[in-house]
Amino acid sequence: MVVYSFSQINLYNQCPKKYQFRYLDGLEREFETSPDLILWTSVHWALEWLYQQVSILNTPIKADVLWKFHQLWNDSIAEAGEKLIYKWDQHEDDYLRRWEKYLESYYDKYSPFKDTTVIATESMMNFSLDKNTGSESKQFRWIIDRLDKDSEWNFIINDYKTNKKLPPEGDDEYREQLTLYAYWVQQKYGKYLKNIKARILYLHFDITDEWEISQESIDNIVLKYTSAINKIENSRFDYNMWVKDAFPTNQNSYCKYCEYQNVCPLWQHLNIEDEMINGGDLWETTIKKLIDQYAEYAQKATEATKEKDAIKDIIIDYAEKKWLEQLFWEKYKISVSKTYNYSAKDLNALKDFLKEKNLIDEASDIPYYKINALVKNEKLSSQEIQTYLDKKDSWRLSPWKKD
Length: 403
Ligand code: SF4
Hints:
Elements: E1 3-4, H1 6-14, H2 16-24, H3 35-55, H4 62-80, H5 92-110, E2 117-128, E3 139-149, E4 154-161, H6 173-189, E5 195-202, E6 207-213, H7 215-240, E7 276-278, E8 284-286, H8 287-322, E9 326-328, E10 333-335, H9 347-356, H10 360-363, H11 368-376, H12 382-388
Parallel strand pairs: 1-3, 4-5
Antiparallel strand pairs: 2-3, 3-4, 5-6, 7-8, 9-10
Helix pairs in contact: 1-2, 3-4, 3-5, 4-5, 6-7
The protein binds iron/sulfur cluster (SF4).
Protein backbone atom coordinates (compact mmCIF):
# COMPACT_ATOMS: atom_id res chain seq x y z
CA MET A 1 0.00 0.00 0.00
CA VAL A 2 1.30 3.43 -0.95
CA VAL A 3 1.49 6.01 1.83
CA TYR A 4 1.09 9.58 0.58
CA SER A 5 2.35 12.87 1.90
CA PHE A 6 1.90 16.51 0.99
CA SER A 7 5.26 16.71 -0.69
CA GLN A 8 4.40 13.69 -2.87
CA ILE A 9 1.06 15.12 -3.94
CA ASN A 10 2.52 18.58 -4.53
CA LEU A 11 5.31 17.07 -6.58
CA TYR A 12 2.77 15.19 -8.72
CA ASN A 13 0.78 18.40 -9.21
CA GLN A 14 3.91 20.26 -10.18
CA CYS A 15 5.00 17.58 -12.66
CA PRO A 16 3.74 13.97 -12.87
CA LYS A 17 6.92 12.90 -14.70
CA LYS A 18 9.09 14.15 -11.86
CA TYR A 19 6.92 12.15 -9.44
CA GLN A 20 7.50 9.06 -11.59
CA PHE A 21 11.27 9.57 -11.67
CA ARG A 22 11.48 10.06 -7.93
CA TYR A 23 8.97 7.59 -6.51
CA LEU A 24 8.60 4.87 -9.14
CA ASP A 25 11.82 4.74 -11.12
CA GLY A 26 13.92 4.87 -7.97
CA LEU A 27 15.88 7.86 -9.23
CA GLU A 28 15.96 9.24 -5.73
CA ARG A 29 18.20 12.28 -5.74
CA GLU A 30 21.21 12.16 -3.53
CA PHE A 31 20.28 13.66 -0.19
CA GLU A 32 21.31 17.29 -0.29
CA THR A 33 22.05 19.26 2.76
CA SER A 34 21.79 23.01 2.87
CA PRO A 35 22.05 25.64 5.61
CA ASP A 36 18.32 26.33 5.14
CA LEU A 37 17.45 22.69 5.79
CA ILE A 38 19.70 22.58 8.85
CA LEU A 39 18.15 25.79 10.05
CA TRP A 40 14.66 24.36 9.54
CA THR A 41 15.42 21.27 11.62
CA SER A 42 17.35 23.16 14.33
CA VAL A 43 14.53 25.66 14.84
CA HIS A 44 11.89 22.91 14.89
CA TRP A 45 13.87 20.81 17.35
CA ALA A 46 14.64 23.81 19.59
CA LEU A 47 10.94 24.73 19.74
CA GLU A 48 10.01 21.09 20.27
CA TRP A 49 12.42 20.97 23.20
CA LEU A 50 11.02 24.25 24.58
CA TYR A 51 7.42 22.97 24.54
CA GLN A 52 8.37 19.57 25.92
CA GLN A 53 9.89 21.41 28.89
CA VAL A 54 6.79 23.60 29.17
CA SER A 55 4.57 20.54 29.23
CA ILE A 56 6.47 19.11 32.21
CA LEU A 57 6.17 22.50 33.98
CA ASN A 58 9.86 23.27 33.61
CA THR A 59 9.73 26.37 31.37
CA PRO A 60 13.27 27.18 30.28
CA ILE A 61 14.71 30.69 30.26
CA LYS A 62 15.35 32.40 26.92
CA ALA A 63 19.11 31.78 27.07
CA ASP A 64 18.50 28.02 27.38
CA VAL A 65 16.34 27.96 24.26
CA LEU A 66 19.05 29.79 22.32
CA TRP A 67 21.67 27.45 23.74
CA LYS A 68 19.60 24.46 22.61
CA PHE A 69 19.24 25.96 19.13
CA HIS A 70 23.03 26.48 18.89
CA GLN A 71 23.70 22.97 20.11
CA LEU A 72 21.38 21.45 17.49
CA TRP A 73 22.75 23.70 14.77
CA ASN A 74 26.38 22.86 15.62
CA ASP A 75 25.68 19.11 15.75
CA SER A 76 23.97 19.22 12.34
CA ILE A 77 26.72 21.36 10.79
CA ALA A 78 29.36 18.93 12.08
CA GLU A 79 27.41 15.97 10.71
CA ALA A 80 26.97 17.61 7.28
CA GLY A 81 30.72 18.28 7.04
CA GLU A 82 31.94 19.17 3.57
CA LYS A 83 28.58 18.38 1.97
CA LEU A 84 27.29 21.71 3.27
CA ILE A 85 27.44 24.56 0.78
CA TYR A 86 26.54 28.19 1.42
CA LYS A 87 25.07 29.93 -1.61
CA TRP A 88 24.82 33.56 -2.68
CA ASP A 89 27.63 34.82 -0.49
CA GLN A 90 25.87 33.70 2.69
CA HIS A 91 27.85 32.59 5.74
CA GLU A 92 27.05 30.72 8.93
CA ASP A 93 26.96 34.01 10.88
CA ASP A 94 24.24 35.39 8.60
CA TYR A 95 21.95 32.51 9.58
CA LEU A 96 22.78 32.57 13.27
CA ARG A 97 22.38 36.35 13.63
CA ARG A 98 18.94 36.27 12.03
CA TRP A 99 17.71 33.24 13.90
CA GLU A 100 18.86 34.32 17.31
CA LYS A 101 16.80 37.44 16.82
CA TYR A 102 13.73 35.53 15.58
CA LEU A 103 13.83 33.05 18.46
CA GLU A 104 14.33 35.83 20.98
CA SER A 105 11.27 37.69 19.71
CA TYR A 106 9.30 34.44 19.66
CA TYR A 107 10.21 33.78 23.26
CA ASP A 108 9.34 37.35 24.32
CA LYS A 109 6.01 37.17 22.54
CA TYR A 110 4.77 33.83 23.94
CA SER A 111 6.46 33.43 27.34
CA PRO A 112 5.55 32.39 30.01
CA PHE A 113 3.69 29.91 27.70
CA LYS A 114 0.72 29.62 30.03
CA ASP A 115 -2.09 30.31 27.54
CA THR A 116 -2.19 26.80 26.16
CA THR A 117 -1.65 23.21 27.11
CA VAL A 118 0.62 21.22 24.82
CA ILE A 119 -1.03 18.03 23.58
CA ALA A 120 1.80 16.87 21.30
CA THR A 121 4.97 18.10 19.59
CA GLU A 122 6.40 16.82 16.29
CA SER A 123 3.77 14.11 16.27
CA MET A 124 3.65 11.64 13.38
CA MET A 125 0.18 11.48 11.79
CA ASN A 126 -0.91 8.33 10.02
CA PHE A 127 -4.42 8.36 8.73
CA SER A 128 -6.65 7.12 6.01
CA LEU A 129 -8.56 9.49 3.75
CA ASP A 130 -11.21 6.93 2.87
CA LYS A 131 -12.02 5.91 6.42
CA ASN A 132 -15.75 6.34 5.81
CA THR A 133 -15.78 3.88 2.92
CA GLY A 134 -14.28 1.13 5.07
CA SER A 135 -11.28 0.96 2.74
CA GLU A 136 -7.84 1.90 4.02
CA SER A 137 -6.12 2.41 0.69
CA LYS A 138 -5.58 6.17 0.76
CA GLN A 139 -3.04 6.39 3.56
CA PHE A 140 -1.51 9.71 4.45
CA ARG A 141 1.51 10.42 6.63
CA TRP A 142 3.03 13.68 7.90
CA ILE A 143 4.37 15.34 11.01
CA ILE A 144 2.42 17.94 12.94
CA ASP A 145 4.71 20.57 14.53
CA ARG A 146 2.67 21.17 17.66
CA LEU A 147 -0.86 20.56 18.89
CA ASP A 148 -2.19 22.70 21.74
CA LYS A 149 -5.43 23.02 23.65
CA ASP A 150 -6.68 26.35 25.00
CA SER A 151 -8.88 26.95 28.05
CA GLU A 152 -12.07 26.75 25.94
CA TRP A 153 -11.29 23.30 24.60
CA ASN A 154 -10.21 24.51 21.19
CA PHE A 155 -7.47 22.33 19.79
CA ILE A 156 -4.90 24.42 17.89
CA ILE A 157 -2.65 23.01 15.18
CA ASN A 158 0.61 24.99 15.04
CA ASP A 159 2.91 25.00 12.06
CA TYR A 160 6.27 26.83 12.03
CA LYS A 161 7.47 28.31 8.75
CA THR A 162 11.10 29.32 8.51
CA ASN A 163 11.26 30.44 4.88
CA LYS A 164 11.70 34.01 3.74
CA LYS A 165 8.74 33.88 1.37
CA LEU A 166 5.34 34.98 2.56
CA PRO A 167 2.57 33.31 0.53
CA PRO A 168 0.52 35.92 -1.34
CA GLU A 169 -3.23 36.29 -0.87
CA GLY A 170 -4.99 33.40 -2.60
CA ASP A 171 -2.12 30.93 -2.21
CA ASP A 172 -3.84 28.43 0.08
CA GLU A 173 -1.38 25.55 0.06
CA TYR A 174 -0.38 25.90 3.73
CA ARG A 175 -3.98 26.46 4.83
CA GLU A 176 -5.03 23.32 2.96
CA GLN A 177 -2.25 21.40 4.63
CA LEU A 178 -3.44 22.35 8.12
CA THR A 179 -7.06 21.68 7.23
CA LEU A 180 -6.09 18.13 6.33
CA TYR A 181 -4.23 17.83 9.66
CA ALA A 182 -7.51 18.86 11.30
CA TYR A 183 -9.10 15.76 9.80
CA TRP A 184 -6.55 13.66 11.69
CA VAL A 185 -7.01 15.67 14.91
CA GLN A 186 -10.75 15.11 14.62
CA GLN A 187 -10.29 11.36 14.26
CA LYS A 188 -7.81 11.13 17.11
CA TYR A 189 -9.12 13.63 19.67
CA GLY A 190 -12.71 14.25 18.53
CA LYS A 191 -14.28 13.41 21.90
CA TYR A 192 -12.24 16.04 23.78
CA LEU A 193 -12.35 19.05 21.55
CA LYS A 194 -14.89 21.81 20.93
CA ASN A 195 -13.41 23.43 17.82
CA ILE A 196 -10.24 23.05 15.81
CA LYS A 197 -8.10 26.07 15.03
CA ALA A 198 -4.99 26.39 12.93
CA ARG A 199 -2.05 28.70 13.41
CA ILE A 200 0.77 29.25 10.95
CA LEU A 201 3.75 31.00 12.54
CA TYR A 202 5.90 32.78 9.95
CA LEU A 203 8.96 33.14 12.16
CA HIS A 204 10.99 35.24 9.74
CA PHE A 205 8.23 37.85 9.53
CA ASP A 206 6.83 37.57 13.05
CA ILE A 207 3.42 37.10 11.43
CA THR A 208 0.78 34.68 12.69
CA ASP A 209 -2.05 33.46 10.50
CA GLU A 210 -4.77 31.97 12.71
CA TRP A 211 -8.27 30.79 11.87
CA GLU A 212 -10.95 28.31 12.87
CA ILE A 213 -11.31 25.23 10.69
CA SER A 214 -14.89 24.46 9.74
CA GLN A 215 -16.34 21.01 9.11
CA GLU A 216 -17.18 22.13 5.58
CA SER A 217 -13.55 23.03 4.81
CA ILE A 218 -12.38 19.65 6.20
CA ASP A 219 -14.90 17.80 4.01
CA ASN A 220 -13.85 19.79 0.93
CA ILE A 221 -10.16 19.23 1.50
CA VAL A 222 -10.59 15.50 2.13
CA LEU A 223 -12.50 15.31 -1.14
CA LYS A 224 -9.83 17.28 -2.98
CA TYR A 225 -6.94 15.15 -1.72
CA THR A 226 -8.87 11.91 -2.20
CA SER A 227 -9.35 12.80 -5.84
CA ALA A 228 -5.68 13.85 -6.13
CA ILE A 229 -4.66 10.42 -4.80
CA ASN A 230 -7.15 8.72 -7.14
CA LYS A 231 -5.48 10.48 -10.03
CA ILE A 232 -2.02 9.34 -8.94
CA GLU A 233 -3.27 5.80 -8.45
CA ASN A 234 -4.75 5.74 -11.95
CA SER A 235 -1.40 6.92 -13.31
CA ARG A 236 0.35 4.23 -11.27
CA PHE A 237 -1.99 1.60 -12.66
CA ASP A 238 -1.28 2.74 -16.25
CA TYR A 239 2.44 2.85 -15.50
CA ASN A 240 2.33 -0.77 -14.32
CA MET A 241 0.56 -1.61 -17.58
CA TRP A 242 3.53 -0.09 -19.45
CA VAL A 243 1.57 2.95 -20.64
CA LYS A 244 4.38 5.26 -21.76
CA ASP A 245 2.77 8.58 -20.88
CA ALA A 246 1.08 7.44 -17.65
CA PHE A 247 2.97 10.26 -15.91
CA PRO A 248 3.15 13.09 -18.44
CA THR A 249 5.73 15.86 -18.37
CA ASN A 250 4.60 19.33 -17.33
CA GLN A 251 6.91 22.11 -18.44
CA ASN A 252 7.05 24.61 -15.58
CA SER A 253 9.21 27.32 -14.05
CA TYR A 254 11.00 24.75 -11.84
CA CYS A 255 12.31 22.76 -14.83
CA LYS A 256 15.55 24.69 -14.78
CA TYR A 257 16.29 23.47 -11.25
CA CYS A 258 14.99 19.92 -11.83
CA GLU A 259 17.50 17.18 -11.09
CA TYR A 260 15.91 14.93 -13.72
CA GLN A 261 16.44 17.26 -16.69
CA ASN A 262 19.00 14.91 -18.26
CA VAL A 263 16.51 12.00 -18.31
CA CYS A 264 13.37 14.05 -18.94
CA PRO A 265 11.87 13.67 -22.45
CA LEU A 266 11.36 17.45 -22.56
CA TRP A 267 15.05 18.30 -22.12
CA GLN A 268 17.05 15.14 -22.74
CA HIS A 269 17.72 15.99 -26.37
CA LEU A 270 19.97 18.86 -25.24
CA ASN A 271 22.49 16.17 -24.21
CA ILE A 272 22.16 13.97 -27.31
CA GLU A 273 24.71 14.24 -30.14
CA ASP A 274 23.39 15.27 -33.54
CA GLU A 275 22.50 12.35 -35.86
CA MET A 276 22.48 11.92 -39.64
CA ILE A 277 19.04 11.37 -41.15
CA ASN A 278 18.72 9.77 -44.54
CA GLY A 279 15.78 10.86 -46.65
CA GLY A 280 16.67 8.58 -49.56
CA ASP A 281 17.81 10.18 -52.83
CA LEU A 282 16.24 13.46 -51.89
CA TRP A 283 18.55 14.58 -49.13
CA GLU A 284 20.83 13.70 -46.28
CA THR A 285 20.92 15.96 -43.31
CA THR A 286 21.02 15.92 -39.52
CA ILE A 287 18.05 15.86 -37.14
CA LYS A 288 19.14 19.12 -35.51
CA LYS A 289 19.22 20.91 -38.87
CA LEU A 290 15.72 19.59 -39.59
CA ILE A 291 14.46 21.17 -36.38
CA ASP A 292 15.35 24.69 -37.52
CA GLN A 293 14.16 23.91 -41.04
CA TYR A 294 10.75 22.71 -39.81
CA ALA A 295 10.34 25.70 -37.50
CA GLU A 296 11.16 28.09 -40.34
CA TYR A 297 8.63 26.41 -42.66
CA ALA A 298 6.02 26.55 -39.91
CA GLN A 299 6.70 30.24 -39.36
CA LYS A 300 6.49 30.97 -43.08
CA ALA A 301 3.23 29.01 -43.26
CA THR A 302 1.75 31.08 -40.43
CA GLU A 303 2.80 34.33 -42.09
CA ALA A 304 1.49 33.11 -45.46
CA THR A 305 -1.87 32.15 -43.88
CA LYS A 306 -2.17 35.63 -42.38
CA GLU A 307 -1.39 37.25 -45.74
CA LYS A 308 -3.68 34.82 -47.58
CA ASP A 309 -6.59 35.69 -45.24
CA ALA A 310 -6.03 39.42 -45.76
CA ILE A 311 -6.06 38.93 -49.57
CA LYS A 312 -9.14 36.71 -49.26
CA ASP A 313 -11.05 39.50 -47.50
CA ILE A 314 -10.12 41.99 -50.26
CA ILE A 315 -11.14 39.60 -53.05
CA ILE A 316 -14.46 38.75 -51.39
CA ASP A 317 -15.20 42.41 -50.88
CA TYR A 318 -14.39 43.20 -54.51
CA ALA A 319 -16.38 40.26 -55.92
CA GLU A 320 -19.38 41.04 -53.74
CA LYS A 321 -19.46 44.67 -54.75
CA LYS A 322 -19.15 43.85 -58.48
CA TRP A 323 -21.47 40.82 -58.23
CA LEU A 324 -18.78 38.49 -59.71
CA GLU A 325 -18.51 34.71 -59.17
CA GLN A 326 -15.14 34.16 -60.89
CA LEU A 327 -11.99 36.34 -61.07
CA PHE A 328 -9.12 35.81 -63.55
CA TRP A 329 -5.44 36.58 -64.04
CA GLU A 330 -2.51 35.08 -66.06
CA LYS A 331 -2.12 31.63 -64.47
CA TYR A 332 -5.12 31.19 -62.23
CA LYS A 333 -8.78 31.90 -61.88
CA ILE A 334 -10.60 31.93 -58.53
CA SER A 335 -14.24 31.05 -58.11
CA VAL A 336 -16.03 32.95 -55.38
CA SER A 337 -19.01 31.29 -53.73
CA LYS A 338 -20.95 31.96 -50.60
CA THR A 339 -22.24 29.31 -48.17
CA TYR A 340 -23.94 29.75 -44.82
CA ASN A 341 -23.10 28.48 -41.31
CA TYR A 342 -26.02 28.10 -38.93
CA SER A 343 -26.06 28.04 -35.16
CA ALA A 344 -28.91 27.51 -32.71
CA LYS A 345 -30.75 30.53 -31.32
CA ASP A 346 -31.84 28.42 -28.35
CA LEU A 347 -29.99 25.09 -28.10
CA ASN A 348 -32.60 23.27 -25.99
CA ALA A 349 -35.49 24.43 -28.13
CA LEU A 350 -33.64 23.31 -31.25
CA LYS A 351 -32.84 19.89 -29.72
CA ASP A 352 -36.51 19.35 -28.82
CA PHE A 353 -37.57 20.35 -32.28
CA LEU A 354 -35.06 18.00 -33.97
CA LYS A 355 -36.17 15.13 -31.72
CA GLU A 356 -39.74 15.75 -32.76
CA LYS A 357 -38.70 15.69 -36.41
CA ASN A 358 -36.62 12.55 -35.82
CA LEU A 359 -33.51 14.37 -37.03
CA ILE A 360 -31.54 14.52 -33.79
CA ASP A 361 -29.05 11.77 -34.76
CA GLU A 362 -28.08 13.59 -37.94
CA ALA A 363 -27.33 16.79 -36.06
CA SER A 364 -25.72 15.53 -32.87
CA ASP A 365 -22.15 14.66 -33.80
CA ILE A 366 -19.88 15.91 -31.03
CA PRO A 367 -16.71 17.49 -32.45
CA TYR A 368 -13.50 15.67 -31.37
CA TYR A 369 -12.02 18.80 -29.74
CA LYS A 370 -15.01 18.96 -27.39
CA ILE A 371 -14.54 15.31 -26.40
CA ASN A 372 -10.79 15.98 -25.91
CA ALA A 373 -11.65 18.91 -23.65
CA LEU A 374 -13.89 16.66 -21.51
CA VAL A 375 -10.97 14.24 -21.02
CA LYS A 376 -8.38 16.96 -20.48
CA ASN A 377 -10.51 18.77 -17.91
CA GLU A 378 -11.12 15.48 -16.09
CA LYS A 379 -14.88 15.61 -16.49
CA LEU A 380 -14.90 11.88 -17.30
CA SER A 381 -13.50 9.13 -15.07
CA SER A 382 -10.92 6.74 -16.51
CA GLN A 383 -13.60 4.04 -16.36
CA GLU A 384 -15.97 6.19 -18.46
CA ILE A 385 -13.18 7.01 -20.91
CA GLN A 386 -12.41 3.31 -21.36
CA THR A 387 -16.09 2.45 -21.84
CA TYR A 388 -17.17 5.22 -24.20
CA LEU A 389 -14.15 6.54 -26.06
CA ASP A 390 -11.66 5.28 -28.60
CA LYS A 391 -8.15 6.64 -28.26
CA LYS A 392 -6.03 7.36 -31.33
CA ASP A 393 -2.57 8.94 -31.55
CA SER A 394 -2.49 12.53 -32.66
CA TRP A 395 0.87 14.27 -33.05
CA ARG A 396 1.52 17.97 -33.07
CA LEU A 397 4.80 19.79 -33.57
CA SER A 398 4.97 23.25 -31.96
CA PRO A 399 8.08 25.22 -32.80
CA TRP A 400 9.27 27.81 -30.26
CA LYS A 401 12.23 30.17 -30.25
CA LYS A 402 14.93 28.86 -27.86
CA ASP A 403 15.61 31.04 -24.77
S1 SF4 B 1 12.49 18.85 -16.16
FE1 SF4 B 1 10.47 19.77 -15.91
S2 SF4 B 1 9.11 18.47 -17.12
FE2 SF4 B 1 11.02 17.32 -16.82
S3 SF4 B 1 10.65 16.07 -15.00
FE3 SF4 B 1 11.62 17.95 -14.31
S4 SF4 B 1 9.92 19.31 -13.78
FE4 SF4 B 1 9.08 17.67 -15.03
